[in-house]
Amino acid sequence: MDIFLQQLVNGLVLGSIYALVALGYTMVYGILELINFAHGEVTMIGAMVALTVIGALLGAAPDLPGVLVVLAGILVAIPACMALAFTIEKIAYRPLRKAPRLAPLITAIGVSIILQNLAMLIWGRQYVSFPAILPTRKYEFLGANISLLQIAIVVLALAVMAGLWLLVEKTRLGRAMRATAQSREVAELMGVNVDWVISATFIIGAAIAAIAGVMVSAYYGLAHYYMGFMLGLKAFSAAVLGGIGNIAGAMLGGLLLGVIEALGAGYIGDLTGGFLGSHYQDVFAFFVLIGVLVFRPSGLLGERVATRA
Amino acid sequence: MNLVLESLRRRPRLVAILLAVLLAALPFLMGFGLGNAWLRVLDFVLLYVLLAIGLNIVVGYAGLLDLGYIAFYALGAYLYAWLASPHFGLHLPFWAVLPIGAAFAGLFGVLLGAPTLRLRGDYLAIVTLGFGEIIRIFMNNLNAPFNLTNGPQGMNLIDPVSVAGFSFGRPLHVFGLTLPPTYFYYYLFLAFTLLAIFVAWRLQDSRIGRAWGAIREDEVAAAAMGINTRNLKLLAFAMGASFGGLAGGLFAAFQGFISPESFTLWESILVLCMIVLGGMGNIPGVILGAILLTMIPEALRYLGDLQRAILGQVVVDPSDLRMLLFGVALVGMMLFRPAGLLPSRQRRREFAAEEGLAEQEQANLYDTRN
């Protein structure tokens, strides 16, 4: 029972990070029907920039409280990622808006290769470690160990999601975004500056990705130029699981995928009588994903798209 | 220049003969001009052309976005290794193993296709991607409880192709020349690639090919016209997969060694980039895409020499810069030709029509304003 609870907690923490990255995929997909392959790399850049700032701050003023230093890292990483996403959209996606559907997918892949290798040139091939400056207190809860960091990640992630929810549902920009997602042409006729809304969507997604990047590097204690790829893949899967284009779906899908993965890693050995070990956790996650999509072809919360003629 | 092209167009037979001579002489030109390393690259170009032609059937003809295509390549390669290496002590000849490998991969194509028939567009993409990863993870871990794939170390000592007692694995000494195995594999790969191109080309305008086109453009309308969309989609998966399996078997025989690392998601993505960049659905385009995307990273290996020549020293390690510039080339070429380098006639028309439509709409808008 305590293994179950422990893995559930781990899964929720990981899942809330997936959910944050998934939001970026799903928002862009909702408006442009584009798989923004470079989004995982934006997350990675966020983590790297934050780590650089944290390292510099620690070098300049080693006595600053750790939480403040990390906060400063996040606050620099957010605008950096926003600027990056804005530039990517402008250079690589906007000129292809009327091109065949797969063309922007290829430029997205190209951008993701570029960002990965730029990061490798700047930060090197080796793992960059996250300095141990955050409090490491642990709480016991029904036999499961929960660290302060884990609680902070989940709380912050929920706060960001709530913020995004308010933004999309209650503000003028949010309404413009929803209108653009429904029909770009009609939104344009209603006076929505569609180009600007699309830029804003990318920027908001990138800001959230920056936060997620710092979270994931703090959680695992390291960052690497290649980390964005797997993270992006998982997050995109989460977005699809929840129903791509649907913001609540991305949150649900992210949390679910995290929990499934963690429970899979904990129990897959017992379930298969020791035949499959915990290194099959990704297989488990993908099987669940495929299973869900076979029975609900447009994701858990995705609208049932009527087959149009 | 135009005059030459025009006169060539009037003599298709002459073009065919010239092309045949060029293809036959190419390994010698490459081998003696640039060295055996480039001949190896040439062999890989042919393998990737084969893969791209296969994926083009799934994505280009039938419009099913497949991001796990490399799994079939892996299945073909592993099947070859199981049937022709000391691993199980089996040493079947290649002409027996390759068809089995293609059929094996084709079967998996149907297995993947069957549960995904209801999925559309990007949902299909993520499921195929998951399938590719599942296959790779199994290959990586199936060394226990029974050793099927030898895990991450991969399988080696795979039998080379041998024809009538002549093994492709050893260099041939003839007329004072030493011809390494890369020459023989070139002609073998060329034969299979030409066969694949022929099949794909004949399929394109056949009843099946036109049905695929109809499904790609509008599945509901296609079904309404009496096309059995289920069977045809499965057929597309199976055909594409068996091409991949064939390429995988050739790859295993050529390398003599395979490991899960050769079959990552990036490989699937790379093959997809080849067909989209070259011009989806158009065979010459797909071939061009495969040639370019295989050659560019190899050519970029010379960046170190280039830096030394221009700047007098190596400023940035070329291996660090190589993939970066590959990414830049990918983005640049796609922005330069959004419909692909050599789009099919139909696609070009569609693209032009859409542009024209947009202009027309713009014009109407201005009209009402005046």
Radius of gyration of chain B, taken over Cα atoms and rounded to an integer in Å: 23 Å
Identify the CATH architecture of chain A: Orthogonal Bundle
Number of domains of chain B: 2
Secondary-structure-derived class of chain B: mainly alpha
Essential attributes:
heterodimer; A: 309 residues; mainly alpha; two-stranded antiparallel ribbon; 11 helices; B: 370 residues; 2 domains
Could you walk me through the main structural features you see in this protein, from its secondary elements to its overall organization?
The complex is a heterodimer of chains A (309) and B (370). Chain A is mostly helical. Chain A has a single domain (2-295), classed as Orthogonal Bundle (ABC transporter involved in vitamin B12 uptake, BtuC), CATH 1.10.3470. Chain A has eleven helices and four strands, in the order ααααβββααααβααα. In chain A, helix 1 (2-32) runs parallel beside helix 5 (148-170) and helix 2 packs across helix 8 (194-220). The longest helix of chain A has 31 residues, at 2-32. Chain A starts with a helix and ends in a 14-residue tail after the last helix. The model of chain A has no long low-confidence stretch (mean pLDDT 87). The relative contact order of chain B is 0.14. Chain B has 15 helices and eight strands. In chain B, helix 3 (36-61) crosses helix 11, helix 4 (70-83) packs parallel to helix 6 and helix 11 (265-278) packs across helix 12.
Any chance you could write out the topology, listing elements then pairs?
The complex is a heterodimer of chains A (309) and B (370).
Chain A: H1 2-32, H2 39-60, H3 66-93, H4 102-123, E1 128-129, E2 138-141, E3 144-147, H5 148-170, H6 172-182, H7 184-189, H8 194-220, E4 222-223, H9 227-242, H10 247-271, H11 281-295
Chain B: H1 2-9, H2 12-33, H3 36-61, H4 70-83, E1 84-85, E2 90-91, H5 94-113, H6 121-141, E3 155-156, E4 162-163, E5 166-167, E6 172-174, E7 177-179, H7 181-204, H8 207-217, H9 219-224, H10 229-255, E8 257-258, H11 265-278, H12 283-299, H13 303-311, H14 318-336, H15 345-369
Antiparallel strand pairs in B: 1-2, 3-8, 4-5, 6-7
Helix pairs in contact in B: 2-3, 2-7, 3-7, 3-10, 3-11, 3-12, 4-5, 4-6, 4-10, 5-10, 8-10, 11-12
